[in-house]
Structures are given as C-alpha cells and as structure tokens.
Amino acid sequence: MRALRGHESAATGTAVLVLGIALTAPLHYGFALALAWLLPTAEFGVVGALLSVLLLATTVLAAGFPWALARTVAQAEGDPDGDTDAAFRGALVGNVGLGVALAGGFAGVQLTTGAILPGVGAGPTLLVAGAIVVIALGQVLVGGLQGARRFTAVGTARTAEVAVKVVLGVGLVALLGAGAAGVGWALLVGAAGAAGGAWWALRDRLPGLRGAVAGARSFAAAAPMAAGTVGFGLIGTLDVLLLGALGHGHGVTFAAVGVYQVAAMLAKAPFLVGSALSEAVFPFIARARGAAEAHGWFVTAFRWVPLALTPVVLVLVVTPETLVGRLFPAEYAGAAGPARVVAIGALGLIAGDMLLKALGARGLAGPAAARLPLAALAEVATMVLLVPGHGATGAAAGFAVGAWVGVLVLGALYVRHHRVGRVRAGVVLRWSVATAVLVALLGAAAVAGAGADLPLIALGLVGYGVLAVRWGVVPAADVARVRDRLVPRIAQTG
C-alpha cells in the first residue's frame, strides 16, 4: 500500500496512468458496448446524452479547483505548509459548492422542462445530480494526489470507479431492466467508490476541517484553469449534445444520436491515453525552474502523439468498419463514416489537451482560456451549417474543426512563451516512411474485408513499430529504458 502514498517519477507516473487506461478502457467501452446490445438504439441515444451531460459536469469539476490545488501541492517542497492546507480547504469548499450549484441547476431545469434529457424521469435526474456532487468532492482529492505525484493512487481510484460502474450498471440493466435509472445508480455508486479510495490514499495530507481557507486567492488561481478546461471540455462534448437539437426536424432521431454516440465513443478512445500522458508530466512542468525545463517535460509527453497515438488514430480513420462491425450490433453500421472524421478530430483533441495543461502548469491558463471560445464557436458554427444536411457526419466535422482550431490558438500561445526547437529532417522522413507502410497495409485491410483485415492491421502496426525502433524514430533512451525493465522480468519468469 506504500505505492499509493509515495512520490513517483514522471516515467513511473506515465506507466501507471497508462496501465490504468489499459485496465479501465476495456471496461469503460465494454460497458457502453453492453448497453448498445442491451438497449434499443433510441434508448441508447438517451443514455448516451445522459453520459455526455455527466462527462461535461466532470470536466467542469475537474478543471479549476483540482488543477489549481495540484499545482500548489506540486510546487510545495517537502511537507505541506499552512498555505497548502488552506488551499486544500479552499478547493474542497469551492469545488463542492460548484458541484451543488451545477447539480441543483441541472435538476431544476430537467425536472421542470425535461429539455436536457428528454424522456428521463425524476429518479435518474436526481441520481445524476447526486453523482455530480460526489464527483465534485472526488476530483479535489484526485487533484491533491496528482500534485503529490501519487499516480498509483490516481489510477487505482479511477479503476475502482469504472469497475463498480460496469458491474453494477450492467447488472441492473441486464437483470432488472432498469434502463436509465440503472445507469444513474451505477454512476453514483462508482463516483462514491472513487472518492472514498482517493480520500484513503490522501488522508495523511488532508488538513483538519478547522483552519484558514484560501478564499479569493484560491478562486483567482482556479478561475483561469476552470474557464480553459471547461471551454476545452465543451469542444469534446458539444457534438453529442447538440446533434439532436440541431438535427430536429431534419431527420436526426434519437436512434441517429445513438449511432453517432458509438462513433464518438470509439474514435475518441485514444484521447484517454493522451490525457494520461499530460497528467503524468503536469506536476513536473509546474515545478520547472524555467521555460526551457518546462518545455523539456512537455516534449517528453508530446512526442508520443506522433509516435504512438497517430498510428492508432490511422486505424480508426482507414478501417473503422473492422471495429464497428465486430463490436456493435448491425444497426450501428452507420457509425463507421462519422468515426473517420471524429478520429481526425480526436488527434487534435489530444494535442490541445496537452497544450492546455502545459500552459496551465506554467500559469498561462488565463490567456489560454481567453482563446478557447474561438474553437467552441468554430465547432458550433460548423455544426449549424452541416448538421441539417448531413446529420451525424456534420456533427463529426464540427468536432474536428473545433478540436483543431483549439490546437492552433493554444499552439500559438505556447510558442510565444517557449523556445520550440525543430525535429531533425531525417527523423521526420523515417517516421513518414514507417507511417506510409502502416497506411498501405491498413488500406489493404479495408479492401480485404472480414477475415483478412485484422491480420493486416496487426501486421501494419507491428511493422510500423519495428521500423520506428530500428530507424531511431523512437528515442534510444526510451528503448533502453523499456529493455532494462523487461529483460530482468523475463529472466525471472524464465
């Protein structure tokens, strides 16, 4: 249990968080897959909207106070002092208060108008509202763990939340036919389990209830991060939330929203890994002694976007039918087309998330937040133009435009404050050739159809990896680090 309460390096933190993604992503997507099989398409669309509302609320509640707290804790050398204790109390009061306000506003609007989740009654509404409040508490505790570099505890809390949600949710829906209410109970209990686990891992750093509370100072630190992260969260959820409203009267039904939910869920999956990378280096960027050191930590995480995440995104762009056809019922076959476009946007979302967190860690969240509305506006404008005529594909295009506009505005800000070097032309050329080999095999898989497609995809990914390592595209230090960790373990098992 010491691993839950000890400081960890960026490399260890990245490994732990990515391992957590490896454990939770199959559960998370397995949960959605099970719901897609258990629920009618239209009802799955309603549940998808419910999950999107909770995702947006989580984005809001994970934004300002938790990240401001993580930055404060990361910058505090040694044992926490009085200022850190006050920051803890201020973050708890502020974030839980914000959660209560969001939950109350959501419940008030939904119970009186039903406009947010059409067809959802009082029971699921109150369950979601309760989950929002619990998430508000849990996110502050996770922020404290993040700043204290207790990445194992962060991963454990998230794994517990997803595991409880999946087991309880599938059981209630499959065995009792609970529908949206069953999903609501699963989300509430899962959030409570995560908050409890985070509290246990952080209990030695938590201050007493009595004492100074960081008031205006805490709000000032939280506001820019909150605004930036919320704006970024809107980019990632507006496509699902607005598709039904903008497509009403143009043939976009709840069933169509359900199909798009499958496309978005599948194509945005790589974002989870990218988020884990940026979270792992956040405290190190926050503690950096200058822009050069901070940029070095940023590059440590960002280089894996082209090296590891782009190949995965290419699989989704070139051969989405392979995954959609094997994972979901036949009525979701139409998700393959939008998934291609969403995957392109997901790559931009990954890059934008890393830029936003790096800027926030360096105290530049305010300028970043001031620029992000341009991206959200571009997304909404694109959807207004395209959804009436193109339905789900128009929503996917809006998401992609919004995500990449976000990269442009955040990237411009980042370059203004950091000296960014150039990647050697030889490395770019070798990476491009390895990627071209992958694309060629993925194209062959798309033409080959069922049976030969999976082996060709696997061959493309393995071939890309071998070429990237042999040609020095992957840094030699990273290859040596992996080899040094694997060889002793293989020797021990042998």
Q: Quote the beta fraction.
A: under 5%
- Helix fraction, binned, reads over 70%
Order of helices and strands: HHHHHHHHHHHHHHHHHHH
- Count of folded domains: 3
> How many strand units?
0
Roughly how many Å apart are the termini?
28 Å
What is the 3D shape?
globular
Please work out how many helical segments DSSP would assign. Answer: 19
| Unreliable stretches covering 5 or more consecutive residues | 1-6
- Structural class category: mainly alpha
Largest sheet properties: none
Radius of gyration: 22 Å
Overall average residue pLDDT: 83
Brief overview, please?
With 494 residues, the protein is mainly α. Helices cover 82% and strands 0% of the residues.
Care to describe what's here?
This protein is an all-alpha fold. It has three domains: 1-214, no CATH class; 257-421, no CATH class; 425-494, no CATH class. It has helices at 10-38, 41-61, 64-75, 82-113, 122-147, 151-176, 179-202, 216-247, 254-267, 270-286, 291-302, 304-318, 320-327, 336-361, 365-390, 392-417, 425-448, 453-470, 476-493.
Write the layout of secondary structure elements.
Elements: H1 10-38, H2 41-61, H3 64-75, H4 82-113, H5 122-147, H6 151-176, H7 179-202, H8 216-247, H9 254-267, H10 270-286, H11 291-302, H12 304-318, H13 320-327, H14 336-361, H15 365-390, H16 392-417, H17 425-448, H18 453-470, H19 476-493
Helix pairs in contact: 1-6, 1-9, 1-10, 2-5, 2-8, 2-9, 3-4, 3-5, 3-8, 3-10, 4-5, 5-7, 6-7, 8-14, 8-15, 8-16, 9-14, 10-11, 10-14, 11-14, 12-14, 12-17, 12-18, 14-16, 15-16, 17-18
